[in-house]
Amino acid sequence: MDFEVTGELQTIKPIITGTKKDGSGEWQKVEFVLSTTDEYNNIYAFEVFGDKVNNFVKYNKEGNSVSVKFNVRCNEWQGKHFTTLQAWHVQNLDKDQQGQAPVPELIDNDIIDPLPF
């Protein structure tokens, strides 16, 4: 099931990098926070993984209005559960309204799990 939310980019955190579990190379991710005008559930923290990170950072900045399509992912580790929102499509609404070319899609075909579980 896909989810979608529209709002303003409040924070784009620095890019995080690491080594894949199997040691076959590096992974990278960026986290960002989106706020909406909804009364409830109005703050969302997302992750973007892999080669999509560079496109996200290149085409988005804090304060932009965006539409985010995402998946919910949950992992269990030592009896604890961790849930993340993984963005796979971010559309910059500010650029679309100005008649400029739309921002390329961020489609995550190879989700890389940096957690130790």
Write the layout of secondary structure elements.
Elements: E1 3-12, E2 16-19, E3 26-35, E4 43-49, H1 52-59, E5 65-77, E6 80-92, H2 93-97
Parallel strand pairs: 4-6
Antiparallel strand pairs: 1-3, 1-5, 2-3, 3-4, 5-6
Give a short overview.
The chain is mainly beta.
Q: Taking all residues together, what is the mean pLDDT?
A: 84
Any idea of the CATH class? Answer: Mainly Beta
Helix content: 10-25%
Helical element count? 2
What's the structural domain tally? 1
Q: Biggest β-sheet: count, sense, barrel?
A: 5 strands, mixed, barrel
What is the 3D form? globular
CATH superfamily: Nucleic acid-binding proteins
Q: Give, in order, the helices and strands.
A: EEEEHEEH
| Residue share in β-strands | over 45%
- Total strands: the figure is 6
Low-confidence stretches: 107-111
Give an account of the 3D structure.
With 117 residues, the protein is mainly beta. It has a single domain (3-97), classed as Nucleic acid-binding proteins (OB fold (Dihydrolipoamide Acetyltransferase, E2P), Beta Barrel), CATH 2.40.50. The protein is 11% helix and 49% strand. It contains two helices and six strands, in the order ββββαββα. The chain has helices at residues 52-59, 93-97, and strands spanning 3-12, 16-19, 26-35, 43-49, 65-77, 80-92. The chain has a five-stranded mixed beta barrel with strand order 1-3-4-6-5. The radius of gyration is 15 Å and the shape is globular. It starts with a strand and ends in a 20-residue tail after the last helix.
